[in-house]
Design a protein that fits this description.
single chain, alpha/beta
Length: about 425
């Protein structure tokens, strides 16, 4: 019987074909890799005629020829930290005697007219406050829990800030600080801070407006202070400092007889820190006992003073003694703000008693009555750590207008907010 012949040739040829295919694909991959690298390394061109380039990490970064080692080092850093096979090019902005080379995504090289990194002057207290304000604002708006603690407030108080605490760079609109400790980046408009940095960038400077964030889901309280500003003591000033220390705000109901060139600076300070001001009449008279014209003069005269001296529009008033009637409501074109927690400071003049009443009586959405003319009130707020205690209990300290907004109350004429 004949044996079947076995054919090995076709199988061997098939294996040779598969092997050749595999090595061919490997070779193709290597070629594509080299081509890609050559494209990134040699094919990329800058939009700038004077650009030089560095190649690293399969990236290309261009830099201005005149910046020499500063520009080269910055470009190398971009390649090192950037995505592979990326091309980094720049736009140039001239800012008076400075140059801003913008690579996008907040990657900028900022140099002076000698193409060196500008030397900033030591930060002024005002400059430190701006950095502190924006750090607190950013952390809160990012929902960072630690940003609502008194420890964080104390740690980020402007007196504790140093240039070594953050890395910084510029773009054409902002001074950008990166805090490693808090893993946070903040951007402060140059229109506010350029002067404080000692830089003349040709950016028109504007009055500073403090950023402030309120979380509508967190408890909030409105502290209110009547009868100030204090004339012969530092009560109002120290209370303002304590509010700022803990990123808090309050509403001050001032009396006209205390307004003067002497007290204007402390009011200006309070406004700059974001506090609210309302009228508490000129002479603390019981409005119910006055004629309609006297009512208007008592309440609206204070509003006129603030409009004239501070360009500030008052949006509410507090009737002295909490006394009002239908006639007062029809004459005064503002909502009346009252209270539901009375510190009793006007009566006890005892700091411990004041502190105890406020802490024990305060709850979410409370409006607290205090006076910034009594030494005992200042002692309760500052030495007694009233604000720190409220912060530690989870409260945000806001203005009356802000509290009403989150309560869904429209503050208009005839409204008696908080107590009727």
């Amino acid at each position: 019987m004949r044996k079947k012949k076995r054919y090995y040739g076709r199988s061997r040829r098939k294996r040779r074909r598969n092997s050749g295919y595999f090595y061919g694909m490997v070779a193709l991959g290597i070629c594509l890799f080299i081509a890609s690298a050559l494209f990134v390394g040699r094919g990329a061109k800058s939009k700038n005629f004077d650009a030089k380039r560095v190649r690293s990490n399969q990236c290309v970064a261009f830099y201005p020829r005149q910046t020499k080692n500063m520009g080269k080092a910055f470009a190398e850093k971009l390649c090192k930290k950037g995505k592979r096979k990326s091309v980094y090019d720049y736009k140039t902005y001239k800012m008076k005697d400075y140059y801003c080379y913008d690579y996008g995504n907040d990657q900028t090289l900022f140099l002076d007219k000698h193409f060196k990194k500008p030397q900033l002057k030591p930060l002024s207290d005002r400059g430190k406050k701006m950095i502190s304000d924006y750090l607190r604002y950013q952390m809160k708006s990012d929902g960072r829990e630690e940003a609502y603690t008194s420890d964080f407030m104390e740690d980020t108080h402007y007196t504790n800030l140093k240039m070594e605490d953050f890395e910084y760079h510029f773009n054409k609109e902002s001074f950008i600080c990166k805090f490693q400790k808090y893993d946070t980046v903040i951007e402060i408009p140059l229109k506010y801070i350029a002067k404080e940095l000692g830089l003349d960038l040709g950016v028109p400077q504007e009055p500073y407006s403090k950023p402030y964030y309120i979380d509508p889901k967190r408890p909030m309280v409105a502290l209110t202070f009547d009868d100030g500003p204090s004339l012969n003591s530092d009560c109002t000033d120290k209370i303002l400092d304590e509010l700022y220390k803990y990123d808090a705000k309050a509403t001050f109901y001032v009396v006209g007889r205390s307004l003067s060139e002497e007290t204007n600076p402390v009011i200006k300070k309070g406004l700059e820190l974001g506090n609210q001001y309302g009228s508490h009449s000129h002479s603390h008279s019981n409005l119910v006992k006055l004629s309609e014209e006297q009512m208007r003069q008592e309440v609206m005269g204070v509003c006129d003073y603030f409009k004239e001296h501070f360009d500030y529009e008052m949006t509410s008033y507090r009737p002295p003694y909490g006394s009002y009637n239908d006639q007062v409501d029809s004459v005064i074109p503002l909502p009346a703000i009252l209270w539901n927690v009375d510190s009793g400071d006007w009566e006890s003049r005892n700091s411990d008693a004041i502190l105890s009443k406020v802490i024990s009586g305060t709850s979410d959405r409370s409006v607290v009555l205090l006076h910034d003319i009594h030494e005992a009130s200042k002692k309760a707020v500052v030495d007694g750590k009233m604000i720190k205690t409220l912060i530690d209990r989870g409260y945000q300290l806001v203005t009356v207008d802000e509290l009403a907004k989150f309560e869904g109350v429209e503050l208009v004429q005839g409204i008696h907010f908080c107590w009727d």
